[in-house]
Specification:
Strand content of chain C: 25-35%
Helix content of chain C: 10-25%
Number of strands of chain A: 29
Helix content of chain A: 25-40%
Number of strands of chain C: 15
Distance between the termini of chain C: 52 Å
Radius of gyration of chain A: 24 Å
Shape of chain C: elongated
Chains: A alpha+beta (617), B alpha/beta (270), C alpha/beta (345)
Strand order of the largest sheet of chain A: 7-8-6-18-19-20-17-21
Number of helices of chain A: 19
Shape of chain A: globular
Structural class of chain A: alpha+beta
Oligomer: heterotrimer
Largest interface: B-C, 88 and 98 residues
Amino acid sequence: MDQQTPRQAMDVDIVCVGFGPAAAGFLATLGRAVTREDGTTAIESRVAPGMPLQVTCFERADDLGAGVSGIVTRARAIRETYPDLDSSQIPMAAAVTSERMVYLMDPVGASRRSYPLRIGDRLIKGLQSVLPVTHHGLELPFIPGFLKKENGLILSMGQFMQWVGGQVMASGAAQLWPGTPVAEALVEDGAVRGVRLMDQGTDRHGQPDAGYMPGMDVRAALTVVADGPVGAVGRQIDEQFGFPPGHHVRDWAVGMKMVVDLRENAGLEPGTVIHTFGFPEPEIFGFLYVNDTRTASLGVFVPSWFNSPVRTAYRYLQHWMLHPYLWRYLEGGRMRSWGAKSLQESGRRGEPYLAGPGYARIGEGSGSTNVLTGSGVDEAWCTGTVLAQAVVDLLAAGKPFSRENLDAAYVERRRRSWVEAEGRVAERARDGFHHGVVTGLLGMALAGLSGGRLFLPVEPRRPYERVRSAEAYFRGRIPASEIERLTRESGQTGQPLHDVLLDRAGWPAIPYDGALLVSHQDALLMGGKVQAASGYADHVTFVDEDLCRTCGSKLCIEICSGQALMPGPGGVPAFDREKCIHCGACYWNCVRPVGGDPDRTNLRFAAGSGGLHSTEN
Amino acid sequence: MSEAFHIVVCGSVAPDPLQTLEPVTTAAGPGLKNEMLLPHVLDPWAGHALYEAANLAKQAPGTRVWLVSVGPKAKLQQVMMTVAQKVPFELVAVDGSASGFADAHATAAALADAIGAIPGLDRSRLILSGGWESATRCSSVTLQLVGERLGIVDQFQGVDRLTIEAGGALRLTERIDGGRHQVSVVEGPPVVVGWATGYLPEPPNNPQVGMANMRAIMPALQKARPVPAAGGGAAFLRVEQPKQVRETRIVKDVPTEEIAREIVAWVRGA
Amino acid sequence: MEQVLVLLHTDETGGLPKAGLEAVAAGARMGAELGGAGFAVGIIGAGVQADANQLAGCGASRFLVADAPELAQSRYATDAAAAEAVARQAGATIILAPMTPRFARALPGLAHRLGGRVDTHITGLAAAGGTPVVTRWFYRQRIEGALQRTARPWIILLDPGAFPAWTGAAGTATAEAVPLAFGPALTRTTVAGIESPAAGQQTIRPDADLLFVAGAGWTKKQADGQPHPADAEAFILDFLRRSRASLGGSKSLVDLSGEGHAVLGFMTHMNQIGQTGATPRHPKGLATCCHGEEPHVVGWRFITERRAVNLDANCGWARGKADVLYVADAFAVMKRVNELLTDGN
């Protein structure tokens, strides 16, 4: 045990935190400017004179693109960077051939539908013979323009990120280091000076253990924060430099997805895009994209405005797949990969300060996601290319990466981009959902069709302000007197509370088939190939354990995508980092604010090592 | 102080252990379904060999360590992002197949050619090493074939420990049966060392080591020569996954006493 | 017409290892199945006549012996040279040999010298169309393949324990001496000895009926919130003593070096099953406190009957990897099992 190991340090020109579409767009664009086609250096390093610009990118996942999802994108910014991009170059990619939007009705009878929705359902059933209803699904006769994926591409994010990673590495423009979580940004004298990597060879509490190596300091004139919606460095920067007044991130979703090997003759054409809403609960949206005749990427989104105190993703994902409209395609299929991630659903309203002394923010963590069209990958890519152009300008002019210079070069450019323009249209599009599903859909339609000029003026509440008690939420389905008994039972048997309550509320047991319908832990192993290297500290911790002891909700346990958070001694949830898939849902589901700051909750979510190990996603 | 060695570690990539592997038939013979989509890691045995090589290098200053790898270029590049962070080494990459169904003799020929072309390689100081078998072909044959091509007759397999003795001799322990080791002493290089696991832990990720390595690794990858798929190997009659689904009887909510008796009866039974 | 040679070596006692007798039986069968080609036996070692005599009744048409004091040592250079001399004198086209550590080391090199091919870890042997068909595992026992070769000579190394051993009466074998010449270049290596685990710690028993796997769960906190490493060690070692089982471990247990978990001192990398560990052969296997995930379970390929004890009813064993899963506390179960097992079984 060598606690004397000194902390190493190294200097680069630019360090990036996270390798997602934003960092990919940034590095792909920057790379072309740093090294000319003939291999000579156009932009020299400031820290290693004579060498090309030294750019390094740290990604916490063990592989590039491990753990993301199938997406459908218009790929405008991506195609600007790669004009010759054709879907046959990238595994699992397909051009969009058809789109459907389907309202799924409830053949089970357990879904909690509001009065207006129930009226709507009755009307639809009554008019079935003249409406495009099939297998309990109403196919919307048209898709609003703002939702259509014109000239779109279905992509496996994992495969796409691996492909881009290969391009970036081969060009020599940047070095990509997966399996390297960043612990924090280095802040000195009010400016960001680089990052510090996570300590290795520690016990789960972060104390030095066998093979201890303190995390290296990587100093850089510019730190590009591209660590996504739940990135720890992004959050640290927010705490350090503040959040713009009137901006907040109060809307989230956890997207849980699979890639499925379809049975022969499943009946789905490659390039088919299906979006669903209405089932298993009206708040839960779903997607199914067909990569090829035998492969589909699919999943559901469980949002923060779904008020169940036992909201969870996996069980609902299974019920969604079993809906007759979808099951006719999916039956006989096999799970190929599985995973989940958090989505920032506040969009532009959740935009932090985009730049500051020594740092700039890009991607989903910078509020680039368009919450009206439900797209984020291309937007993130665009912010990355915009920043790269700004960086090239500043380097050429010999200007330092101060807040003023970055505001002028990067933020101004971003304000003139289509990401900004479309983001403004989308800004308040989702607020209606804070009132209810029908209101939400109306609000989206209003915003979409009016170009953002009209919207429903509902002020979003914080996620924990919305969560209802189990008695209230299940009123009419489960008598209040039974809730207590069922909760105790769950505590004794170890069966998850959401399963106990959903069973009682009328949701049928899942008929496991060992191939597509499997237990949650099976999904982790078979689908997610989840594992974590030893020697790292736990990355999910609680600020004040007393708050956990007195917390009646434990929503963090219910929502945990990997069942990594489980009931623990004294009421403090126990965390098993070997099961964590780093979705970050626990972070925005904690119901206890802490430290006198209503926007800070009791659960700390840092960048950890390990997680999902499939890039077929 | 020990004489410096020239350690050449042979090793390639293998699918990450938790992946689902399914055999398929291709024009070139059997293969794995979606092989290029599967995340790969450095073959775990080869990894042990590489870390042992780095450890030896620390004891004998001036030692050079090469990793010679035959595998698909794209996969080698991906794996280097992690492996390059572990220990200092130079990469010699050959663009070929890392499939478990590829012929060991063809792989050995490609490795031997690549090793023969390493400028300044000193045979009298050569430790040719690697894992004693791969996690793909699992044959425990390739290193011996490369050794023969290089004319090395002092070969060891299943090695867990190598120590440098006074006078330059090398003492090695090789796994034999029943958890035992055979201890041998060889006068010095050239030797072939096929490593089992040894006793070293996996080194942590060190981006400084990675950056230093990458300066040469990227050009090495770009220079990787393709080797054609060799014919004249085995003819496969059948390649299949075993049907391993047992009807598991799950015994729950049964007293310990009953379970213990059942286990004892089973252990004692025929 | 194929020329089948069964190549053997003596072990440190001067006798033939059991795996060698398995190769003899396989060779006799192969010789018959390849159109009555018959077979020869070649033995490498020091003082080998007695071994040839042991095989006198096996049906071999020739007994070639490479007998030299240098061959008392298990060493690549001299073994490969001797094997080459035997193979050339026999004119062998098919060479069957046991995959003992000694031959696993040397015989692949022989394939190169003879300009032939070698296949190892062979678990099945048959003949089709006048040519052997061998079966072996790929990707750590995940995929099985059957293959044939036209290249000759073809060296086939048989996995110990995969084939029945030859049994028969000893007699007098007419041995053909194979001339050998070992120059100094072949004796740069000397065998210094054998290292065994300390007596009482001999936990690997290849011939045991039962493989007992202890997983990482033994070192984790139990229901009372504390780990119980002393109890774990006592129950496991007690069970091994009473049942004469062979001990295996999972990679996670073997790798543990802290993290707040006490480590079982007698568990080493040698005990690891699956992943970078072994795939031993035993009729029965009992897994305790182990998840049963795929990379570990690949090491169970040659365990016929499988049972597991684990508190997690959803562990890997439950999903078709074991015949029986006992959802119970292994500490309590093994304690009682030990009480029920009397010494000497």
